[in-house]
Write a structure and sequence with these properties.
Number of domains: 5
Membrane topology: Single-pass type I membrane protein
InterPro entries: ICAM_VCAM (IPR047012), ICAM_VCAM_N (IPR003987), Ig-like_dom (IPR007110), Ig-like_dom_sf (IPR036179), Ig-like_fold (IPR013783), Ig_I-set (IPR013098), Ig_sub (IPR003599), Ig_sub2 (IPR003598)
Keywords: Cell adhesion, Disulfide bond, Glycoprotein, Immunoglobulin domain, Membrane, Repeat, Signal, Transmembrane, Transmembrane helix
Number of helices: 1
Oligomer: single chain
Distance between the termini: 212 Å
CATH class of the largest domain: Mainly Beta
Shape: rod-shaped
Protein name: Ig-like domain-containing protein
Strand content: over 45%
Largest sheet: 7 strands, mixed
GO molecular function: integrin binding
Amino acid sequence: MFLPLVAKGFEMEIIPAHRVVAQIGGTVILTCNTTGCAFPKFSWRTQMDYPLGGIVSNNKLYSTLTMNPVSAENCNDYLCTVLCNKEKKEKSVKVELYSFPSDPVIETNTSLVVGETATVICKIRDVFPSNHLEVLLKKEGHILHSESFDGDVISTKTENITVAYSFNPATEDNGKEITCVASLQIAGMDFEPKERLTSLKLNASFGPQNTFINASPGNSSMEGHSLKLTCVTESNPPAQVFWRKHLAKETIQHFVENNVLSIPNARFTDSGQYICEVINPITKKTEKATVNIVIQAPPKNTALTVFPSSSVKEGESVTISCTAANVPAAQIILEKKIGDVVTTLKTEDGNYTINKAQLKDAGKYKCTFVNKFGNHSLDKELVVKVPPQNITVLIYPSENVEEGENVTIMCSTYSNPPSQMILKKVNQDKKIILPSVNGTFTLYNVTKNDTGRYLLDVFNEVGNNVKVIEIAVVGKLEKPGQIMPMIIAFSCATAIAIPVVAILIYVSRQAKINGSYSLVKALRLKV
């Protein structure tokens, strides 16, 4: 049994059907096919009679409309009309376009400096339709700024969109990322990607700040040991480092590398305040840090001074000072030594003051400087000058003598430096000055002309003292009967006087300070 063949009727279709989504700049090909028509006639137009914006190619049974490259003007409804004999058929397809060809470009308008206003700019090129674009600026996931372009004005061509955001960078922003996220969301339009993003790592110039000096092994070091000073600072870009020493006229001779100052063999003179000065070449800002370095050693730069002088007059004020460099710190001990007797004196900041100097204050003063690393001593002699005082005068045999006798005047005194002595007779036409020998004056073979008042002048560079002596000379006894008693008396007196004179001379020589002068025989007077 055979079924009869039924001829198919005239039909048409558009490929793709109904809707085309394409990116501007690409290629869109619309195909209009027919069946059941031996000689179809094709025509293309837009719904609003806009220019086709493409090339039509007709074949026997189909026709194509090629748009290459497709542009925003091609966003239309396209109708294909087919005539087959007297029969006409039409079908349309909607061409929907978008443009989102590249990731955003993010940049700043200037070099970033902490604390100064900067602007981040995000650029999205060739966007269509721009009224569907949304832009976010984020920092570490936190939204800084958002902007959308869904206004009433509908764009008819691709646009370059720019979003700017101003802010003040902080130090902690350095190294963080700002991300520009651009989204093109068109309802019902399926394309990828719908979101594009670009990140910029912030490089903000700042500093220097929080600058300090780290001393290794520490701020205090032993003489001869090595020492390293490191200047630590926060700066971007890295700061330039300059070293100097406070109040030092010469430049630092130690080894400097980058921010490290090395002292391989520290000396006591390396003690002091070191200054690290840093400067940021971009921000031009500077900052300083200081550190006090103490190099430990036995006492150094010690001194013993006596003010106003190591030789003073009795009654004057005198200050004895023991001084040492502040570093290394030293205990100061002041001692006074006279012979084998040593006395420790109490000082105030190393100073010992004698308000009214006496001869007992004279002697050797010794300063001893002690610390745990060693000791050092200095000494100086203090001389106290005293004018003549406590003058003692002995006259032998007495102030009253007979003609022809010798008169011995012995003088002792207490003074420093030793005194000189002269003997002068008062109220005499011819001025006669008699020197002494070891503090002794001798008048030989006296006469009545030697009777009178004598001035004994005792002096040194500090002052003088005067003693008045009365000498009386009487004539000799001439009666024979008196000769023997006189001889006996003289013998007795001589027997007593010789030991006395010897004792007086010994005492005179043992005096602490004495002067010595003699009357010369040239001054004898004729009997």
